[in-house]
Specification:
The structure holds 2 protein chains of 2 kinds. Chain A has 2 domains: 35 residues; 114 residues, Immunoglobulin-like (Sandwich). Helix content of chain A is 17%, strand content 41%. Chain A contains 1 helix and 11 strands. In chain A, the strands form 3 sheets. In chain A, strands 1, 2, 3, 4, 6 and 9 form a 6-stranded mixed β-sheet that branches. In chain A, strands 5-11-10 form a 3-stranded mixed β-sheet, with no helix packed on it. The longest helix of chain A is centred in the N-terminal third of the chain and has 27 residues. Chain B has a single domain, classed as Cytochrome C Oxidase, Chain A. Chain B contains 18 helices and no strands. In chain B, helix 13 packs antiparallel against helix 15. The radius of gyration of chain B is 23 Å and the shape is globular. The chains are: A alpha+beta, B mainly alpha.
């Protein structure tokens, strides 16, 4: 297949650029573990309120500055709606839904994960900055979707 | 012989009527889609309050379904029919085409009326277990099924051509149309399979739904849907735009290659819409991110071909140099200007797309307004503006009527470009600041984080109203043209441009649609067999489904 010399240069440059991008995300994934949240546990959506630990959602301290946070996302609120954390907390969030699909997102952080009924999503984040963080649902879930929010207060 | 020619011309007229009907249906749908779009945009920026019977989410669902699924599909089906009928002239019946059209129309009416009645406020992604009325799912299925009739007709025309011209290459327009439709048929397997789960469930015949599976099937279809739009726009860029600059197609062989790459690579990429989902291994997501990068290559090729066509045409006219070439291009022709602005928007849209598909980087933008900004400068800009531009060319050519108010048409494409640029910039910035998509309100109890989003939503509403105004102008021009008396004069032809004289010959491999369709299907299976196998290895709980609006 004959290619024009200029087109060869253009395509080569494009492929090299894409190759660099791919290399960056691959190295980040393999070396630093920067991968999109992909947990694989399932849960009966009809029995969320009876399944531990989601029968008592909230914060669990598991070590020095180490926490596990269990959330239930349901129309149109998060439980717990407010969470207090000391600064530099390393938190693993576990979220599930008993009804429809929701989003679990804290703008301006790396916390952004889909919440699918039947599945437990998890995402980890370390809070280095004190302040009040807005937690919101970023997947359309019904009539009052825009009211579905919560707070994470880091002090 | 003379009788044959008369029959052929009758057959052509029948085909033209079919194509025009598709294009005018698309025009009408675009008008409704724009109306709903501008209403929801104003509501979101808190500039108006919608009455309860016309609530925000209903408007947004109507806007998304009409624009993304209905307008584009009608236009592309009409365009592919035209490309095939024009380049393979023969005596043919349009019956199957009309059956397809009616099927699409009935499906559209069913889905649209269900949305407007408030029984399907589920967005154009209709994620289970939100449960809409069965009429919505059945309507959407009919819309897709209708397109298969046209695809069948186009494949039959190609087979007829091959039978009668065993040693000749399939004409380029027909080949591109068939490649697009082959990709589309493979993609729609996903949505039809999803509907096979959703319809019995919404009718109450099954008690629960496998949410993860429906999402995977949706995005198996949902991303190739994007390339279906893009291939429609590219067909116009490759075949029509060269003629408007008195240029030629850069290379027949490379044009085919870029469409073949789309056919082969469009489907194994869908998981990049599901990067942040549980239940899908990060490794499969990485694989789809890689495939998404690969599908950028045919767009690089297209960008090169466009600039090469412009430059070679300018040189033949004695023009040299970058700015002189740009200035020489026919910016006073609405068909050229519309498509060229579309290309310009796609430079930004394409690079934004690379960000979205960049695996972990997607965490920052997923489900934010950035994504909404992105698809408004991809499908909303390059694709829709190219279709509008092509309508200015196609309708006069096919109907023999002169374009009504060509100055208004010219103003229209400029306004559309400016409006879309303002709107999508506001959306992109809002998204980077964290504003979520698909929310009726962005105040979040007067949160200080959310306060930064409001000005961007106002910018989006202002840009959006400029776009909506320009769509109103488009409808005036299209309607005015329809009511003109046919002149019977030969209009400037919508000619499928000729190739550059020294272009490389087309290898027979680039005319083998069967082979490439088989490769595409194999790659689609390879890309999804792993994630689906992994999915069913888990204990899957079904969700009962509910109405939350």
């Amino acid at each position: 297949m004959h290619l024009h010399a200029a087109e060869k240069i253009w395509l080569r440059a494009g492929v090299i650029m894409l190759g660099c991008f791919m290399a960056i995300i691959t190295v980040l994934a393999l070396v630093d573990g920067v991968v999109p949240p992909s947990s694989g546990t399932t849960i009966d959506p009809n029995l969320v309120s009876k399944t531990p630990p989601f029968d008592h959602p909230g914060l669990h301290r598991i070590g020095d500055h180490e926490y596990e946070a269990y959330y239930v996302a349901q129309v149109f609120s998060f439980t717990p709606s407010e969470m207090h954390l000391p600064v530099h907390s390393r938190v693993v969030f576990y979220v599930t839904s008993p009804d429809v699909v929701h989003g679990f997102s804290v703008p301006k952080t790396g916390i952004n994960v889909m919440v699918i009924p039947g599945w437990v999503s998890s995402v980890r984040y370390t809070f280095h900055q004190p302040g009040t963080y807005l937690l919101l649902c970023n997947e359309y879930c019904g009539a009052s979707h825009h009211l579905m929010s919560g707070k994470i207060i880091v002090e | 012989m003379k009788a044959d020619r008369a029959t052929l011309s009758l057959s052509k007229a029948a085909g033209n009527l079919l194509v025009l009907t598709h294009i005018y249906t698309a025009t009408l749908v675009l008008g409704f889609g724009a109306l709903f779009g501008v209403l929801q945009g104003f509501a979101r920026a808190s500039m108006i309050v919608l009455p309860p019977w016309l609530d925000y989410y209903r408007m947004l669902t109507a806007h998304g379904v009409l624009m993304a699924l209905v307008f584009t599909t009608f236009f592309i089906v009409g365009l592919m029919t035209y490309a095939t009928y024009e380049s393979i002239p023969r005596i043919r019946s349009t019956r199957v085409g009309w059956i397809g059209y009616v099927c699409m129309l009935v499906g559209t009416l069913m889905a649209a009326l269900t949305i407007l009645s408030g029984n399907a406020t589920v967005m154009y992604t209709f994620y289970a277990p939100m449960k809409a009325s069965p009429f919505f799912y059945i309507g959407a299925t009919l819309l897709v099924a209708g397109t298969w009739f046209t695809a069948f007709e186009v494949f039959r025309d190609i087979a007829w051509f091959k039978r009668n011209n065993p040693s000749a290459l399939t004409p380029l327009p027909a080949f591109l149309a068939a490649t697009t439709l082959a990709m589309w048929v493979i993609a729609t397997i996903g949505i039809v399979a999803e509907m096979g789960l959703l319809i019995p469930w919404s009718l109450g015949w099954t008690s629960g739904i496998d949410v993860g599976l429906t999402r995977m099937l949706f995005w198996y279809f949902g991303h190739p849907l994007v390339y279906f739009w893009i291939m429609g726009a590219y067909l116009i860029w490759y075949l029509v735009i060269p003629g408007l600059v008195h240029g030629r197609i850069f290379s027949n062989a490379l044009t085919r290659l870029s469409f073949i790459l789309f056919l082969v690579l469009s489907t194994p990429v869908g998981l990049h819409h599901q990067f942040l989902e549980p239940g899908i291994n990060a490794g499969w997501k990485w694989m789809h991110a890689f495939a998404t990068y690969c599908v950028v290559i045919p767009s690089f090729m297209t960008a090169f071909a466009m600039f090469a066509t412009f430059e070679l045409a300018a040189r033949r006219a004695g023009i040299r140099g970058f700015w002189k070439t740009i200035g020489w291009l026919p910016w006073g022709d609405p068909s050229f200007a519309g498509a060229a602005f579309g290309m310009l928007l796609f430079l930004f849209g394409g690079f934004g797309g690379i960000v979205n598909s960049s695996y972990s980087l997607d965490i920052l933008v997923h489900n934010t307004m950035w994504i909404v900004g992105h698809f408004h400068i991809t499908v909303g800009g390059p694709v829709a503006l190219t279709f509008i531009a092509a309508t200015y060319r196609l309708v006069p050519t096919i109907s023999g009527r002169k374009l009504f108010a060509p100055k208004l048409a010219l103003v229209q494409v400029y306004l559309y470009f400016i409006g879309m640029f303002i709107m999508s910039t506001g959306m992109h910035i809002g998204g980077l600041l964290g504003a979520p998509r698909r929310t009726a309100d962005v105040s979040y109890g007067a949160s200080s984080v959310a306060a930064a989003w409001h000005p961007e939503m106002v910018a989006a509403a202002v840009g959006g109203s400029i776009v909506a105004l320009s769509i109103l102008f488009f409808i005036i021009v299209a309607t005015g043209t329809y009511f003109r008396t046919p002149t019977g004069e030969q209009q400037p032809a919508f000619f499928f441009s000729e190739e550059e004289p020294n272009a490389a010959p087309v290898p027979p491999l680039f005319d083998n649609l069967k082979l490439w369709s088989a490769v595409a299907l194999a790659l689609a299976i390879l890309a999804y067999i792993g994630p689906i196998w992994q999915h069913f290895n888990k204990h899957i709980y079904l969700a009962p489904g509910m109405r939350t609006w």
